[in-house]
Amino acid sequence: MRSLRSVEERERAQRAVWVVAPAGATEAILQTARSVGFDPSVSVYQVSSLGRYLLCPRNIEVQRRLVGCEIVFEPTLGDRINRKFSRLLPRFLRGRGTEQGPVTEQVLSLFDPRLPQLRDSRLRDHILEIYAGFRQDDQVIKRLASLPLERVGSIVGICIDQAGNRSRMQIEGTVEDQVAYMEQSLLKDVIVILDSAHLGRGLFEMGGFDLAAYDPERRFCLISGQRAGRRQACVLQGGSGVDYWVQDPKLVDYLFLLEHALRSNAQFREPFEACIAGEAIPLKLLFNRELDIRYSGAHPPEAYREVLPAGIDDQRSLDMVFDAINRLQLGVSLNYIPLIGDHGEQMFTNISVMHDMRALEPIKERLPKLYAAMAARASSTDVGSYYVLDSIKGSRHDL
Fold first, then answer.
1. Where are the domains of the chain?
2. SS3 state of residue 317
3. What are the Cα distances from residue 292, in Å, to 295, 298, 327, 331, 353?
4. Which pLDDT tens digit goes with each residue over 362-390?
């Protein structure tokens, strides 16, 4: 386990955390942009290796623990006949389950492989060695041995990450190959291939990027602009040439929001610094525009705790303020597991609640001093003007 050994190393970690920054457009970069069809006016940025990872559309490898499987059975002849016959009937006369998908059975090991501490590998290996002597009594192994393979269509692995979150894993080969793989790999660490770091809807898998080996000096060129009538972006390789095209321009927006959260919120930045120093393991990064945090005078956000009592003295104005505060919130959160302290393998979440300045337009004339105070906290980015509204930190059981 790595840890910060000095003030200098901690300061290095703080300086290291960056994602995207404006960059000058050299003639070589502009020539590359023209050669791939961008309109003349483009924006050029530098991205760190972390930013490059988040944008990249290529497959990533993550480590998971295989804890069980889902058995997918082929429909019997009777099932197929019933389903075909049910399609001839009015919907209200169809039997329950006749239009459902294939019959499945989920089998999970009763043994919890997360009991040993991650950092105590000798204890973990010792417990797994003891378990190996009882493998044949595991309910997953016993169920696989009793399967009528002629009725099985496929077997899908069920894995957990270090926080205990489940995911599915496709196993290649015939059913016999899949059974053999399960028997050999059950309760072992396996490599799972994901399509990309972006899992969808602003959620990113961080397990494919080694923050502890992150080098802040590695920089890559990002070009963003109009191409073929729509917004597009690409990352260059070396001095010229396209390394990859960004699949969705919204991913570039996420980089600006993450950069702003890191620069403006020290509490949110802390777990990133800990991961770079080897003191924590990152799990998931999430951008959430659908936060449902309802603040009130009794529970104001951190940014307003000092300015509200002295600046507002009537209820109507107070109501207007909280109506504005509860609009256009954006959450940027990191899930991680600390490797120091007495936390065990408990997952923690740090959330930077950011607020769009547009939400405060209704109070601009009525409460100009309050509006000016928040505007002074805000920073303009390529995706708007935001300020830190609040910071939330807690374990899975707290949030």
1. 7-59+198-395, 60-194
2. helix
3. 9, 17, 9, 10, 11
4. 999 999 999 999 999 998 888 899 999 99
